[in-house]
Amino acid sequence: MSEKASRKDKRPAARRPASNSVARRYIRRLLLTVLVLIPLSAGLLIWLAFFTDVCAIENITITGNKSLTTDEVRQLSGIAAYKNLITLPVKRLAANLERNLWIRDVKVGRHLLHTVNMVVEERSPLAMLDYNGACFLVDKHGFIFTGTTADQLPELLRIYCGDLAAPKIGETVKDKKISESVKIVASMPQALRTSLSLANPFDGRGVVFASKGGFAIVYGSAEETARKNEVLQAVLLDIANNGRRIAYVDVKVPDAPVIKPK
After folding, report:
1. Does residue 234 share a domain with residue 134?
2. How many domains does the chain contain in total?
3. Contact 215, 184 (CB under 8 A)
4. Could you give phi then psi for residue 71, rounded to 5 degrees?
5. pLDDT of residue 1
């Protein structure tokens, strides 16, 4: 082998260890830099988030409220006591709001960097329970969430509760007959519900409604409500279109309704 070829073979072998050593030193320095920067960056972020106005609460959006005003929701939540979005106790705010019986559910969330979102689901009054003049609003779940008077919300269907003891606000209807009335009313389309003025579950024939047209509707039990509602809507439409004078309509057996003329 020539001397020139021998020198070619030796030169690369002499350079490799030096090159590898430089690479290892570079990687170690890079790793050390990263290890130092990570806690420094984390500390900086924590300082910015907790001790500066970078995440200060500037916007509060409230949606879903109808009966309660935006200011009432804001006040009930207690959000005025908090300034920082990161430390905001969203579960506590939600719990504060859910103490109000008008509110069925609420979701409180953060939207970086400055916004709090509150989505409220209010209870909607289905009917008015009338306990011998003591009146209460009930939702479709049978939950009694506030007291009222007979002259308020006159558009609501009234459920006659007889001489039973008045319930406590914040509880679910316990009497079976009244509960069945609520279930029936909740099953009805809005148009059908608004054509009725009174429900009497103590008639002896099941639930009996008084229509705004001046005649009775014998509904019976809370079975086959979809079919009963469908038949009843068709009968009421026919009565209205033809100006018929009716004493009562009986849909206890929906496939064989009885229409008693006056």
Report:
1. yes
2. 3
3. no
4. -65, -35
5. 47
